[in-house]
Specification:
Layout (H helix, E strand, L loop, with lengths): L17 H4 L9 H16 L2 H11 L3 H12 L20 H21 L5 H14 L19 H13 L4
Length: about 170
């Protein structure tokens, strides 16, 4: 499915930090670590494939991106809506909840498109992922895209996981 927000396979990424990779006791970091984390979550994330695809189609975003967020946020539970900033809708694993999380993501991407209009669609997609995690006002530049994100690797890790999921059925 085509995304109006850029091609996830063309987004540059450094992948997961060692701190993120340590979740599974991995002795590697980077893209290969993100791919291993995504592989470990593949069966759990695949349980949501039908609703991921439906929600992705409705929002014109790549289902692999949603799958990657689910992997990063809950290791395959469902997309996580930050209760500090939003009132979660629906059950934690419902289509309604997944739709809400995707609406927040799309809003974050659109904020980055305005803030960094000269960036490519792929850069804006990556910036939107960082903004989804920490807010658009905390994305200082492309070079510092993850400087304020959780474990300082959120967008890079999610991009690498999304690339894995794109190549594995999403």
């Amino acid at each position: 499915m085509a995304s109006i927000y850029g091609n996830i396979l063309k987004v540059e990424t450094t992948g997961a930090s060692q701190q993120t990779a340590n979740q599974d006791g991995l002795r590697m970091a980077g893209v290969s670590a993100s791919h291993e984390l995504a592989r470990a979550d593949l069966n759990r994330v695949s349980q949501y494939k039908r609703i991921i695809t439906k929600v992705a189609r409705a929002h014109q975003i790549d289902p692999a991106v949603i799958a990657a967020i689910i992997s990063r946020e809950t290791r395959g539970g469902s997309e996580h809506v930050d209760k500090r900033r939003h009132t979660p809708e629906g059950g934690w694993d419902s289509e309604q909840h997944l739709n809400q999380g995707t609406e927040i993501l799309v809003s974050s991407i659109k904020q980055i498109q305005v803030k960094f209009a000269s960036w490519s669609k792929e850069q804006q997609l990556k910036g939107g992922l960082a903004a989804y995690n920490m807010g658009a006002s905390n994305v200082p530049s492309y070079q510092g895209i993850d400087s304020n994100t959780h474990m300082k690797d959120y967008s890079n890790d999610v991009v690498a996981r999304a690339q894995f999921y794109k190549r594995n059925g999403f």
